[in-house]
Write a structure and sequence with these properties.
Rossmann fold, Methyltransferase, Methionine Synthase (B12-binding Domains), Chain A, domain 1, binds cobalamin, Globin-like
Length: 357
């Protein structure tokens, strides 16, 4: 990580509130029509949203990753398609941040920050083309995915479970069911939630039900013969998205590893103690929200500084690493995988190679 980028990122965070307020005031000057909407709640929400944008901007700059901020902007565009506020509002908002920062930074720093914002603004223009590029490879399990989601959204988790048990009887592997049904349906639930088509309660119900249904497959997962390798999996401190690293741990277990799954929000000290106690060969670290990358950097530093962890290889995964596939190097990890299947391959490679990839 570049020292200057880290310093700029930190300075944005320190001044976040006042930059957000200044940007909002400037935005009202540029869009006088906002005055008609400017109830105290609207003003507070607008400033809070700008702080959120600044948080993402700060984290992206800290790890020198324009892709992370660009992805956030695209996500915001998607959110705005489902609320009665035009995309122009976001465009002007980014322009106002770009303008406001000159009060807080020197010319060289302003240039760096503006390059990130400009990248985001350029993407807004072409966002539709970007989103339509993805074409999906049709796995035979895909046709069962919508049925699975429908059961969950109808609060029929027993039927969703029965469907999964039926797929096991049809000889689909646990790995395929995990990736094609659970992983993909969680992403779809996320899209529906983002589009305001389902409530937070429905998302929580679906996630909890999927965790329960995954649990029903454990007799199959624990039946594999074991090797003598140990995998510890956890989410970084503050991170609540735990399903990804749970899937990774289960794939490792299926591949014969002894796994120690720690779940969400793990403090640095406990992770280091666990790696030593369990004699881990590989530590799998999961980050979903890019504002937790700083915690991942601190955790990796702490592990690397502990002589008793000298043999532990660190593999990272989760959303920000998919968006920027070089980010794992920037933060000092030994490897990265896009999904649970690749996680097994990378971990085995790292252990065989006894070092870097
Ligand atoms: C369920 C969910 C939650 C639940 C999580 C509950 C739980 N017990 O896990 C709760 C309600 C807590 C939650 C909270 C929030 N969430 Co949320 N959440 C989701 C949702 C719908 C599904 C997550 C999931 O289960 N994914 C399925 C797993 C299998 O996928 P995965 O994590 O990517 O994992 C795979 C790979 O990435 C990889 N991998 C993952 N970890 C690792 C680790 C290693 C070592 C390796 C090798 C590989 C690897 O392998 C996995 C399996 O193949 C997503 C939608 C989405 N697209 O993911 C939103 C989503 C991630 N959430 C989002 C948001 C905004 C939030 C909140 C900020 C909302 C809020 N305003 O409070 C908070 C932040 C909480 C926090 N501090 O962490 C956004 C993030 C947008 C962005 N651009 O950053 C998403 C994308 C929703 C959306 N479409 O808008 N969320």
């Amino acid at each position: 990580m570049k020292f200057t980028d880290v310093a700029i990122g930190d300075a944005i965070k320190v001044n976040m509130k006042s930059i957000a307020i200044d940007s909002y005031n400037l935005q009202v000057q540029k869009m006088p029509e906002l005055n008609e909407r400017a109830t105290p709640i609207f003003v507070e929400k607008s400033i809070r949203d700008t702080e959120y944008t600044l948080l993402y901007l700060s984290d992206a700059i800290r790890v020198s990753s324009p892709k992370l901020f660009a992805d956030y902007v695209l996500w915001f565009v998607d959110v705005m398609k489902n609320i009665p506020i035009p995309i122009k509002y976001l465009v002007v908002n980014l322009e106002c941040i770009s303008e406001t920062i000159k009060k807080y930074f020197d010319i060289r720093e302003v240039e760096i920050i503006r390059s990130y914002i400009k990248n985001g603004l350029d993407l807004i223009e072409s966002s539709d083309d970007q989103k339509n590029e993805a074409s999906e490879f049709d796995h035979p399990l895909k046709k069962y995915r919508s049925e699975y989601i429908r059961y969950l959204l109808n609060a029929e988790r027993h039927k969703a479970n029965a469907l999964v048990q039926e797929l096991v009887r049809m000889d689909y592997s646990v790995q395929d069911i995990y990736l094609e049904i659970f992983h993909e349906s969680q992403y779809e639930i996320g899209r529906l939630w983002q589009a305001n088509k389902i409530t937070i309660a429905e998302e929580h119900y679906c996630t909890a039900s999927t965790q329960l249904i995954m649990g029903q497959l454990y007799p199959l997962i624990f039946a594999t013969p074991k090797n003598d390798l140990v995998f510890v999996g956890a989410c970084v401190g503050g991170e609540l998205h735990e399903l990804g690293v749970r899937m990774v741990s289960d794939f490792m277990e299926l591949a014969g590893w002894n796994t120690y799954y720690l779940g969400a929000n793990m403090p640095v000290k406990s992770v280091v103690e666990t790696l030593i106690k369990e004699k881990a060969n590989v530590f799998g670290l999961s980050v979903t929200m890019s504002f937790h990358i700083k915690e991942a950097v601190d955790l990796i530093k702490a592990i690397k500084a502990e002589p008793l962890c000298a043999g532990v290889k660190i593999v990272v995964g989760g959303y920000p690493f998919i968006v920027d596939d070089q980010l794992w190097r920037t933060i000092g990890a030994d490897g990265f995988a896009r999904n649970a299947k690749e996680a097994v391959e990378i971990s085995e490679k790292l252990v065989e190679a006894g070092g870097a990839l």
